[in-house]
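Retro notes
What went well: the complex prediction finally ran end to end.
Inputs used:
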Amino acid sequence: MAKMTLEELQKLRETKKRELEKREVTGKDIEIIVGMATCGIAAGARQTLSAFLNELEAQNLSNVLVRQTGCMGYCYAEPTVEIHMPGMPDIIYGKVDPETAVKIVRKHILGKVLINDHILDKPAADIMKK
Amino acid sequence: MAFKSYVLVCGGTACQSSKSEEIYKNFIAELEAAGIKDEVQVVKTGCFGLCEKGPIAKVLPDESFYVKLTPSDTKEIVSEHLVKGRPVKKLLYQGEETKKLAKIEEIGFYQKQFRIVLRNCGVINPEDINEYIARDGYAALEKVLFQMTPEQVIEQLKISGLRGRGGAGFPTWLKWNFTKEVNDFPKYIVCNADEGDPGAYMDRSTLEGDPHSILEAMTIAGKTIGSNKGYIYIRAEYPLAIHRLEVAIQQARELGLLGKDILGSGFDFDIEIRLGAGAFVCGEETALLTSIEGERGMPKPRPPFPAVKGLWQKPTVINNVETWASIPVIILKGGAWFANIGTEKSKGTKVFALTGKIKNSGLVEVPMGTTLREIIYDIGGGIINDKKFKAVQTGGPSGGVITADYLDTPIDYENLQKLGSIMGSGGMIVMDEDDCMVDIAKFYLGFTVDESCGKCAPCRVGGRQLLDYLEKISKGKGTREDIAKMKQIGNAMKRASLCGLGQTAPNPVLSTITYFEKEYLAHIDDKICPAGKCKALITYSILPEKCIGCGLCARRCPVNCITGEKRQPHVIDQSACIKCGECYSVCKFGAVARK
């Protein structure tokens, strides 16, 4: 790369900061958990996960943490996705294909509107939490 | 394609020596085999600090902290964790609580730490300037080049209260200001990376984990005091740190962050690396500068101080690695932010290399004023095998010991000095009841006697004499007058030696005499070594009533001096015994006695 000017450095910092922020865990208040058990993967959970990551990048959302987890128990409705965010109830969506993933980001996370035809359940109470 | 997971593999020297390089390569190969190479980013970072548990790898966003990995473990982590999202529990960090701890926040080691100097270590890839820039790298330089006057920079340093982390604790702003005020050009900026204390590796890890922070800070100093040239003096025994510095300098030059007309500001600055040959005295600033000039590294009397007449007799700012690494943060967050951390006279944080008889040996950064107890028990996890804490040695060969009575002393420059030790560079060696204080004093003094350059008599002759007395005492031939003599010689060395090496060399001896005089007297009056270290004063013997004649000791004895019939008590031939202690440690029946 050639020598930079001040503006170029500042621009580079912004781009790189966004890339690095994806690695960070603290300061992210929205959580997307994708079920990645055998059944989930067989039903296309990997593509769903990629769709989430790509859409978050496209929307420039840096406060969302994407995790993967094991089987959520809804093997008939895979891929399943759990969403936690402030101001919205915790929701599990079922049959989330890449298209629905994009919808979830745009409507649920950005628009704060539930996507009714994919709602499966609320997560079970977590006995490990006080 | 965005990454769904990140694997951060520690690339510090400690982890690399236990195959982290291979682990890094295996991760990449396994990910490729699993077909998810594009979904997971593998990053080689600097030191995580918990060297005791290395090699370490961290998986994000799950924050799984994998420890003591072997190259073959990567397969399972990739197939279970990265493909299926199930962390491999048996490889995760396990604390004292005997439950598996998956997340870093749950590990006691990190809880009391506050990382300023090590802010990027274990977080970024040190060989990628972009990752440093992403973490506000070179933003402090921007500020200094375009928004601040040199006076404002010095004012912020003054407010911050930053003092030199290399040992003596001289206020950094004052040093810079002296150099700035001298009207004599060219001026030079020097980074002292000649870390030589036994057991200390703070500077190495900082350079390996975050080399750009040093380059940025030196450039800031150049702009502030009016210098266009910097030197990093680093010992040749740090090949990885040197390599990372070279890569960093290269990348900074390519982006125009070093070289001519930095960021179009009209300011030129460049940095050169100079390798030291491993002489301890070259960590002393005047000797270091002499060595950069190509001469034999010997100290010079001060004044004149390097701030006025340093490298090639020109005004020079010389700071230690840790001091440099703090500077970009002070500029970015402001001196007042930094001054909020620490004690009244010692601001900010200090990195310590925790080693010796401690469970979590490693690199820790804590606010000044943290107590020794917090460092040793809360962060360090206590003494290995839960033995009794005896003392901690701080400041390396220039420092002294601190005993259990002072565990609750808040650590800062003044308090350590009051206790007869020094902050030094930050080595912290923990000792338990099995360590003999005469032996420890002998070890450190032996080191400084070897490393003395020989230029001034107090250090050259005094050191040798002190060592002779210590050897005499450890052989059981000492007298009480010897202790008085040692104090006298030690105090003379402190006052008359030319440089820091000689002035501080007697510290380990004097401080062990102060706090453990009884132990010295046991060697002198009773001819015994209470810790069982001084070979001339101990004998191993077999207790016939306990010995079952298994013959294990006889088989393990390296000089074959143990004999006996099967199932009959054995005997040690004292004239041939070399007192290695092997029989003592292998006997399962407690039948070998050490006196």
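What we learned: The helical segments of chain A are 6-21, 38-42, 45-58, 98-110.
What to try next: split runs per interface for comparison.
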